[in-house]
Design a protein that fits this description.
Blueprint: H1 2-40, H2 51-65, E1 76-85, H3 87-94, H4 96-113, E2 119-122, E3 139-144, H5 149-164, E4 168-169, E5 175-176, E6 179-188, H6 194-213, E7 219-224
Parallel strand pairs: 6-7
Antiparallel strand pairs: 1-3, 1-6, 2-3, 4-5
Helix pairs in contact: 3-4, 4-5
């Protein structure tokens, strides 16, 4: 009887150990999956929203705006796009590590200049799929949470001023500054489309850059009640 009991205890202990090991492996695998998910949602250089996060967020906001039952606040989708002025010269003169430092500092300034619920991403509106984040680019986008055209304009000017005041001390001892051209668009659903919204915002960004070259503040913000037809 005692040998049988001893065998039973041994089997029970072995099973417990196996369960403990399996639980540890599961927790490790789950942690890895969560880490990969976080990485997929973050730009590796700046810590801002990644392409996947931006696509998910803009799609969610537009779906909400296109819902006939949505309230007035939820029916408006507002977007800022901005391009750094002078960034290429910094890259060419001081090297790509210096350019990376500039992007990180600009990312910090952007997050401080917008509101906690806004989504800031590195961005390229001319990508083939229309909604993406550029790897290594000097353009950014901000999805504004529930902002009307007036708030969009205020935030756009605040962002432009914050970046224009930014002074960056590089590791080689150089001190550099960058400017920004900022464009904003505020549209009210239903009938919104992500690709068209971004396309129109990008066209306004070119207008903002032209204003900056002419000596004006490089900010353009426009709004319409409904989504405009695609420009030809």
């Amino acid at each position: 009887m005692e040998p049988q009991l001893s065998m039973a205890y041994t089997i029970i202990i072995a099973l417990v150990l196996v369960l403990v090991i399996l639980a540890a492996l599961w927790r490790n695998a789950e942690a890895r999956v969560n880490a990969f998910r976080r990485m997929a949602h973050l730009d590796h250089l700046t810590g801002l929203a990644s392409r996947a996060r931006f696509e998910m967020e803009i799609g969610r906001r537009i779906d909400r705006a296109n819902n006939p039952q949505a309230g007035a606040r939820d029916q408006t989708v507002s977007l800022l796009v901005l391009d750094l002025d002078g960034f290429k010269a910094i890259n060419d003169t001081h090297g790509h590590p210096a350019g990376d430092e500039v992007l990180r500092r600009v990312a910090q300034v952007l997050e401080d200049a917008v509101r906690p619920n806004d989504t800031v991403a590195r961005f390229d509106p001319r990508a083939t799929n229309g909604v993406t984040a550029r790897v290594g680019g000097d353009e950014f986008a901000v999805i504004l949470d529930g902002a009307d055209s007036k708030q969009t304009s205020e935030i756009a000017h605040r962002v432009e001023r914050a970046i224009s005041r930014l002074v960056i001390h590089l590791k080689d001892g150089a001190v550099v500054r960058v400017g920004a051209s900022v464009a904003g668009i505020s549209r009210t659903g239903p009938g919104l489309n992500a690709a068209e919204l971004i396309e129109h915002a990008d066209k306004r960004l070119y207008r903002a850059k032209d204003k900056g070259r002419s000596g004006d503040v490089a900010v353009v913000v426009e709004s319409e009640r409904t989504a405009a037809p695609r420009e030809k």
